[in-house]
């Protein structure tokens, strides 16, 4: 079977990409990802705060902590200089150990000052750069259009400083997700990753504290990303990449059928170990053989391309469900 596909314009041996996480924060872990079948890896994110030396220019970290729990340790534990030097070293070490693409990741909230660092990432040997962007919609005076434009401005500023392929990983907090993804695609980025999964706060009523809830994703969470990839894959120039809810070969296949080129894995690997990728790929090949498919391209997007399925991903299923006809 030919499991190769495109990710960020790069040809990878299969559609499994280990997403930015603690699974990719050392060169040895990245080598293990490759050994167990990963087609590519996205490095643990470097945060914008680590790239800005002037503390007076830092954005409020409160919002970042609310949405990204790992920011507390990754930003506060290390000094900025140490974190940056360590990150560039990680890229260099990883590239010496593996043959699969190594994608750097920046968790960012503004287009100010830090984008010039993208050049150093390129010089360190990274194969691409994923921009993990989330502007919390928590300001009453900030319009949806203003929020969208920050995303676009970030991409434009980064592209001024590097020729690396770029992916943008976003969440679903948009008034019009189709418009936002379309505008991002028109900046000529290679990939769009749907969707980021954020920290979900809960309340401990005994300790009267805010606590983390549902740290890992569940298979049921795939449906949100699946719907929008199916609706967007034929509308935009950028490759679509599925994220969240991939816990088996079934989730992987669903994403590809909806039009995704690849998927990002995280929670399933924390739960089952890196070797679980081998099982997913084995089951993928078994399914392809039974269906008579010889390559990923044979079935990529066949569900989203059918007109009747487009309607199903929009509103008709909801109408049938609520009228009792489904």
Describe the structure.
α1 runs parallel beside α5 (80-97) and α10 (249-258) crosses α12 (276-291). The chain is α/β, with parallel strands linked by helices and 326 residues long. β8 (166-170), α8 and β9 (191-194) form a beta-alpha-beta unit. It has helices spanning 27-35, 48-51, 61-67, 70-76, 80-97, 118-123, 144-159, 177-185, 222-232, 249-258, 267-272, 276-291, 302-305, 307-314, 316-322, and strands at 5-7, 10-12, 16-18, 40-42, 46-47, 102-108, 128-133, 166-170, 191-194, 200-204, 209-213, 239-243, 262-265. The chain is built from 15 helices and 13 strands. It has a single domain (5-322), classed as TIM Barrel (Alpha-Beta Barrel), CATH 3.20.20.70.
Cα-atom radius of gyration:
20 Å
Strand content: 15-25%
Stretches where pLDDT is under 50 for at least 5 consecutive residues are: 54-62, 316-323
Which descriptor suits the 3D outline?
globular
What is the assigned CATH homologous superfamily?
Answer: Aldolase class I
Q: What share of the residues lie within helices?
A: 40-55%
Question: Topology, pairings included?
Answer:
Blueprint: E1 5-7, E2 10-12, E3 16-18, H1 27-35, E4 40-42, E5 46-47, H2 48-51, H3 61-67, H4 70-76, H5 80-97, E6 102-108, H6 118-123, E7 128-133, H7 144-159, E8 166-170, H8 177-185, E9 191-194, E10 200-204, E11 209-213, H9 222-232, E12 239-243, H10 249-258, E13 262-265, H11 267-272, H12 276-291, H13 302-305, H14 307-314, H15 316-322
Compose a concise summary of this entry.
With 326 residues, this protein is of the alpha/beta class. The chain has helices at residues 27-35, 48-51, 61-67, 70-76, 80-97, 118-123, 144-159, 177-185, 222-232, 249-258, 267-272, 276-291, 302-305, 307-314, 316-322, and strands at residues 5-7, 10-12, 16-18, 40-42, 46-47, 102-108, 128-133, 166-170, 191-194, 200-204, 209-213, 239-243, 262-265. The longest helix is centred in the N-terminal third of the chain and has 18 residues, at 80-97.
């Amino acid at each position: 079977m030919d499991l190769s596909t495109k990710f960020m314009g790069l040809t990878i041996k299969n559609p499994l990409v280990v997403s930015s996480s603690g699974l990719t924060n050392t060169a040895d872990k990245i080598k293990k990802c490759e050994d167990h079948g990963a087609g590519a890896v996205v490095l643990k994110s470097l945060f914008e705060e680590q790239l800005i030396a002037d503390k007076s220019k830092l954005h409020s970290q409160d919002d970042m902590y609310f949405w990204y729990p790992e920011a507390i340790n990754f930003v506060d534990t290390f000094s900025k200089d140490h974190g940056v030097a360590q990150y560039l070293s990680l890229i260099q070490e990883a590239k010496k150990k593996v043959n699969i693409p190594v994608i750097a990741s920046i968790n960012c909230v503004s287009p100010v000052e830090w984008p010039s660092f993208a050049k150093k990432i390129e010089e360190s040997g990274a194969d691409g750069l994923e921009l993990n962007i989330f502007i919390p919609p928590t300001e009453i005076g900030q319009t949806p259009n203003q929020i969208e434009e920050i995303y676009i401005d970030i991409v434009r500023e980064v592209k001024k400083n590097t020729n690396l392929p770029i992916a943008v990983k976003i969440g679903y907090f948009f008034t019009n997700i189709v418009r936002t993804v379309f505008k991002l695609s028109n900046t000529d980025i290679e990939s769009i990753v749907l969707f980021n999964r954020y920290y979900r706060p809960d309340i401990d009523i005994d300790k009267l504290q805010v606590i983390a809830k549902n740290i890992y994703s569940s298979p049921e969470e795939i449906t949100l990303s699946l719907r929008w990839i199916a609706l967007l894959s034929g509308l935009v120039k950028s490759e679509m990449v599925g994220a969240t809810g991939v816990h088996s070969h079934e989730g992987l296949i669903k994403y590809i059928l909806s039009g995704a080129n690849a998927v990002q894995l995280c929670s399933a690997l924390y739960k089952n170990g890196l070797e679980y990728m081998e099982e997913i790929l084995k089951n993928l090949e078994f399914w392809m053989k039974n269906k008579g498919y010889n390559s990923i391209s044979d079935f990529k997007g066949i569900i989203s391309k059918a007109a009747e399925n487009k309607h199903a991903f929009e509103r008709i299923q909801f109408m049938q469900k609520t009228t009792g006809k489904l």
